Predict the 3D structure of the following.
Amino acid sequence: MELAGKVALITGSGIRLGRAIALALAEKGCHLALHYNRSAEDAQEVALLARQAGVRADLFGADLSNPEAVETLSQQVQASFGHYDILINNAAVYLKGSGLDTSAEMLERQFRLNLFAPILLIRAFARQLPQDLMGKVVNISDAKTFRHQTDHFAYRLTKHAINEMTRMYALELAPRITVNAVAPGIMLPLAGFEHVDMQALGEKRVPLQRVGSPQIIAENVLHILAQDFMTGAILQVDGGENL
Ligand SMILES: NC(=O)c1ccc[n+]([C@@H]2O[C@H](COP(=O)([O-])OP(=O)(O)OC[C@H]3O[C@@H](n4cnc5c(N)ncnc54)[C@H](OP(=O)(O)O)[C@@H]3O)[C@@H](O)[C@H]2O)c1
C-alpha cells in the first residue's frame, strides 16, 4: 500500500510508541487521526509535528475502556476524513499482578481497553471502509506472548488474545483488509522506573544485547503496511529475548 494520501487512526498516539508510529506515518505522507485519552497536550504536539511534515492531523479524545466512546471515535474520524484506510490499535494498560493477585476489577480494566476496544475498532473500521478500497489493521501485541510467565497475568492474557484475534480477523476480513500484529520486546522504562538502566537490562536479557525503541517498532509497522501478501502475522521484534 502506498501511504501518501491515506488516512490512519492511531490509538494512544500522544506518547511513546503511539507517537513514534504517528510521526513515522506522517513522514510517509499519511494523514493522521490522532487519538489520545489523558495526554491531550502531547497529542497536540504530535499533531503540530505531523502538520509540519505536510499532512493533515486531527485530534480525537476518548476513553476507550467505554465501548460507546469507541463507536463514537470511529464515527468522528469518519465524519472528519470521509473514511480511513489504516487502523493502528496501540493503546493499552499494563497492570502488575500474578494470577492469584488478579481481581475481577483488574481483568475488566485490562480486557476493556486492551482487547474489547481493538475488536470494536476493527469492526467499526471494516464497516466504514468503502467496499472498493483496501484497508490495513496493525495491532500492537507484546513479545511476552512468545513465552509463558505469570507476572502481569491479566495483561499477558489480553495480548495472547490479541494474537488470536489478529489471526481470526485476518481470515474473516480477507481479501479486502489485512490484519497483522507487531509484538515488541523490552523498549522503554515504565512510568516511575525512568531510573532503570535500560542498556544494562538489554545486555543482560536480550541475545542481541540491547533494548528496542519506539522508532524500531514504528519501522516494523511501516514494513507491515507496505506488505500486500501478509495477513495474520505476529511480527516478533524483541532482539531474540523470547526465543
Ligand atoms: N513499552 C514497552 O516496552 C512495550 C513492550 C511491549 C509491548 N508494548 C505495547 O505497546 C503499546 C504502547 O506501549 P507504550 O509503552 O508506548 O504505552 P504506555 O506508555 O503504556 O501508554 C499507553 C497508551 O494507552 C493510552 N491509554 C491508556 N488508557 C487509556 C484509555 N482508558 N482510553 C484510551 N487510551 C488509553 C494512553 O493514552 P493517554 O496517554 O492519552 O492517556 C497511551 O497513549 C501497548 O499496546 C503496549 O502493550 C509496549
Observations:
- The chain has a mean pLDDT of 97.
